[in-house]
Amino acid sequence: MDVAVNLPYRECRTQPIALGILKALMPSLHQIDLAPKFNDIYLKIILGKARVLVEKHQDLETKRLAYILTFFYPLEAIFKIEDEWDEKLHELAYNLADLILGYDPKITCFSTYKNNIGLSLLVAKILAENQIKSIIGGPSILWKSHVYAKLYPWVSCFYEGEAETLFVKTFKRTQKGEKIRMVKAPPLLNLNASPIPIYDDLKLEEYDAIGVETQRGCVNRCSFCNVRFFPSCEIYREKSISRIVTEIQILKNHKREFCFCDNITNPTPKRLIELCKALEPLEIRWASGSFIPRISLREAYWMKRSGCFLAGLGVETLSDRLLKWMNKPINWKTIRETLANLKTFGIKVEISLIKGFPKERLIDTLISLVRLLSIKKYISIVSITPYYISQNSEVYNNPRRFNVNFKPDCDDSITHTTVYVKHENKLVKLLMDIAYSVIENV
Predict the structure, then answer these.
(1) Same domain membership, residue 346 and residue 280
(2) Mind listing the pLDDT tens digit for each residue in 408-442?
(3) pTM of the predicted model as reported, rounded to 2 decimal places
(4) 3-state secondary structure string, the chain?
């Protein structure tokens, strides 16, 4: 039978929604999520390779290098084996391919993103040696499907865009033996027309929570972000409240905890309160990692009443100066008030920060540290992400404005990000690293 596959690395907080959509579009596809079982093995290989290469990348810490390697390394290792870690990667790829071959597919559909695109291409190459066709789609197939088609000729088709519009047609054409190579699908204008995902072949108990989409796209225009240019996010769209409720009712018997896999769960106070009021009768527990830190006491009340137990806030920095450069629609006052409001109703909070944004100065880092210490009683988790230049973001398109010096053609064709290292004074860099080390352990 033909299969829809998800490979490591993928955080298994929620099930892969893309596989649920593919199954709903084509019920004959068998879903295979190999991330829960093989994530740890894959990361061990990546960390091993990072230790080997870290001396060649002294301007990058091992943690960041390992993050980069999760998607770069498999591409390099497709054509060469130089050490034990290359051998282990190929051994893993062959094991994954063998598991897929056990279903005797004629076509394998890969759902990909930056953390698994490299491994997916390597496994697709092994499958092609066994006369198995492959279709590769997902957020990683952006803007450059014509480039991928030239670089990786063993892939039958690179599918760029949302599955709902052209996937079934593309699959049937591939079945007939047509050489399509690449497809650019238009966005689905009405999200209510997307089929309700089906997860018959997945064990939902393997995941921390059940994921549900409430919208696609983003109303914000942050200067570091390129989400609004994704084929699935270039137009902001929402599912109706009744449609969201229907999806949850279908899935609530599996687990009581849900997670909204959104770009932004609270685009407006009105939308958030309407959603919460509709969720209250369902008696579920839910979380979202995509909140603007601009939540009133009334919104926090309805969040708690509807079952919200965790809110992830895209804070990025606690410096007002840097927030303006990032074009974030918030400031320190709204962040602090949001945290206090959520604390009032006992909702746990995770905040995300960006380390190394081009306009960040030592004073910005120190301000973030001091302010974080003053609000740490409101926060459960602090997550720090190294800054990368995202293709088509404002920083990418206007590098001079942000005092960034890089070549646009050096962005990786798979991840659409460019590694960015701030060339600070060594003392300043040391102090910033120390400050972030303290922040990470707050």
Answers:
(1) yes
(2) 544 454 445 555 556 567 777 778 878 888 887 76
(3) 0.90
(4) CCEEEECCCCCCCCCCHHHHHHHHHCCCCEEEECHHHHHHHHHHHHHHHHHHHHHHCCCCCHHHHHHHHHHHHHHHHCCCCCCHHHHHHHHHHHHHHHHHHCCCCCEEEEECCCCCHHHHHHHHHHHHCCCCEEEEECCCCCCCHHHHHHHCCCCCEEEECCHHHHHHHHHHHHHCCCCCEEEECCCCCCHHHCCCCCCCCCCHHHCCCEEECCEECCCCCCCCCCHHHCCCCCCCEECCHHHHHHHHHHHCCCCCEEEECCCCCCCCHHHHHHHHHHHHHHCCEEEEEEECCCCCHHHHHHHHHCCEEEEEEEEECCCHHHHHHCCCCCCHHHHHHHHHHHHHCCCEEEEEEEECCCCCCHHHHHHHHHHHHHHHHHCCEEEEEECEEECCCHHHHCCCCCCCCCCHHHCCCCCCEEECCCCCCHHHHHHHHHHHHHHHCC
